[in-house]
Amino acid sequence: MRSTDQEKRMMIFCLLLAAFSSPVFAGEWTANVVKELDVLVQSCAVVPCTFTHPKEYHPDSAINAIWHLKSDGKKRIYSDAQRDVLENFKGRTKLLGHLSDGNCTLEMIEIKDHDNGPFCFRMELPTGSIDKFSFVNDCVMFKMLPNPPDPILTHSTAIQGRPFTITCSVTHTCPSHVPELTWNRATTDDVVTVVHKKNRFGYWEMESILAFTPEEKDDHSEIICTAAFFGGRNLKPCRISM
After folding, report:
1. What is the C-alpha to C-alpha distance for residues 133 and 27, in angstroms, rounded to an integer?
2. Which positions, given as ranges, span the membrane (predicted)?
3. Could you tell me the maximum CA-CA distance found in the chain, to the nearest angstrom?
4. Using an 8 Å Cβ cutoff, are 189 and 174 in contact?
């Protein structure tokens, strides 16, 4: 009878031990990565990435953060150890976030038309436990844009002598190198306000708001907003007639 009681107590102890050492109690390694991004060839892209970890781990500079091809974990597009990075990605990728904040955001510049991915995030701990912290189910795929997206112009009806505003906006995926919006007007009475804001996960919107009071000389004139994207040659104009 005593043996049976002892076995029951041991069983209860084991169940409690298993419960408190489970991911529910100890926390899990999880990653939140944008699944797909529209990226402009020759420009840049920022991949939002955050992760959580068990309380007993404290990510710091001793941990090697890695981004790699989903098809082969050894093909690294980013690593703290630059010698391990694929040659054609060296100097083109870097982390924008801090691991200590659970931020694994990646920036890639000089996008090539074959940089499709999928790309996955991984962490290597000093203990060598790497498989446990590979997030191959949370990877990003790039959809290549050979040409810049069109800026969008929104405005009210222009009436001579009354205040008039026109907004030029463009969506992008590289908040570290935002598009530059310029107008073909440069009078001292014009007021230009620039706004940069999040659109949806992985996407941002740059706005330039032009405000002025139309005069008789503005009749039949053309207002042009031009978006210049990081990468040099990516210019995209949009225009309206007054």
Report:
1. 13
2. none
3. 105
4. no
Rounded CA separation 227/183 (Å):
9
Token pair 């000389």 in the structure block, residue: 217
- Domain ranges, ordered by start, for the chain: 26-145, 152-241
DSSP summary character for residue 150: P
Q: Output DSSP code: residue 7.
A: H
Distances (CA, A) of 64 to 13, 123, 124, 126, 187: 37, 6, 5, 8, 53
DSSP secondary structure, 86-122, as one string: -GGGTTTEEE-S-GGGTB--EEEES--TT----EEEE
Confidence of residue 26 (pLDDT cuts 50, 70, 90): very low
Q: Tell me if the bond preceding 59 is cis, omega within 30° of 0.
A: no
pLDDT in tens, 76-88: 999 988 889 999 9
Q: Which residues contact 241 (CB under 8 A, 6 or more apart)?
A: 220, 221, 222, 223
**Burial call 174-197: b when 16+ CB within 10 Å, e when fewer:** bbebbbebbbebeeeeeeeeeeee
Instruction: State which of 20-24, 142-146, 189-193 shows the largest mean pLDDT.
Output: 142-146
The tokens describing 214, both together, are 């139309």
Fold assignment, 152-241: Immunoglobulin-like (2.60.40)
Are 117 and 72 in contact, with CB atoms under 8 Å apart? Answer: no
- Identical fold, 26-145 and 152-241: yes
